[in-house]
Amino acid sequence: MRRPSLPLQGPRVESQRKHKINDEIGAPEVRVLDSTNAPLGILPRREALRIAAERELDLVEIAPQANPPVCKIIDYGKFVYEQQKREKQAKKSQTQTSLKEVRFKAGTDTHDFDFKTRHARQFLTEGHKVKATVMFKGREILHKELGEVLLQRFIDALADVSKIDQPMKMEGRFLGVLLTPESKKTPKKKSESAPADGAETPSQAPAEAVAE
Questions:
Q1: pLDDT of 117-143, one tens digit each?
Q2: Burial environment of residue 8 by CB neighbours within 10 A (0 to 12, 13 to 18, 19 or more)
Q3: Would you say 105 and 75 are in contact if contact means Cβ atoms under 8 Å apart?
């Protein structure tokens, strides 16, 4: 005698079930897969139900749009539980990204530049996009090249953790650039031979914690 399926998580509402199972399947013939996805061929529905019952499992319609419909012989309660578990894990692993902005003045000094760049580095490593803008006041707009130089310094300083999403462009009195996080590349193994004369080994110090 076929045992019942494992109970679903929470109250089971038939109308909310995503799949037809067992006697709910109406097609006279179905293409059947076993629990390991091995094909059992196209079988009469009754024969497929009989095999499922012998294995104390469910016949689950997983592709009703196919001709004939595709069914799988599995434990439906366990199948739904594993599906819910995967969906929950996928949502948990998703990174919620947002747009962060750092603003500079055309005459921003080195200390302020470094301070804001460190913040931008933190945003990027957390998975956020960063928009950097330079604001021009009055006649400063006549010297846009100062802003271009500053933003290029910004881009170069964060090149190891970002890439350009939108290049520099003017928006009114603001010159801006948009950076997006760059996935870390696997470092190449060091060669056993010594580096050539004058060659330097690049290194990146971790970003400092900055108090507001």
A1: 999 999 999 889 999 999 999 888 888
A2: middle
A3: no
The one-letter amino acid code at 157 reads: A
Same domain, 58 and 112: no
Output the pLDDT for position 11.
Answer: 41
Cα(182)–Cα(185) distance, rounded to whole angstroms? 9
Q: Reduced to 3 states, what is the DSSP secondary structure of residue 12?
A: coil
Q: What angle do CA 184, 203, 185 make, to 5 degrees?
A: 15
Place of tokens 């019942």: 4
For residues 124 and 74, state if they share a domain.
no
Query: Residue 13 pLDDT more than 80?
Result: no
- Reported residue count of the chain is 212
CA distances from 170 to 65, 159, 167, 177 (A): 52, 22, 10, 9
**Cα distance between residue 21 and residue 14, in whole Å:** 11
| Parent domain of 35 | 16-92
pTM: 0.45
Q: Residue 3 and residue 53: Cα distance in Å, rounded?
A: 8
Task: Using the predicted structure, report yes or no on whether residue 74 has a pLDDT greater than 80.
Answer: yes
Instruction: Please compute the mean of the pLDDT values over residues 43-69 and round it to a whole number.
Output: 92
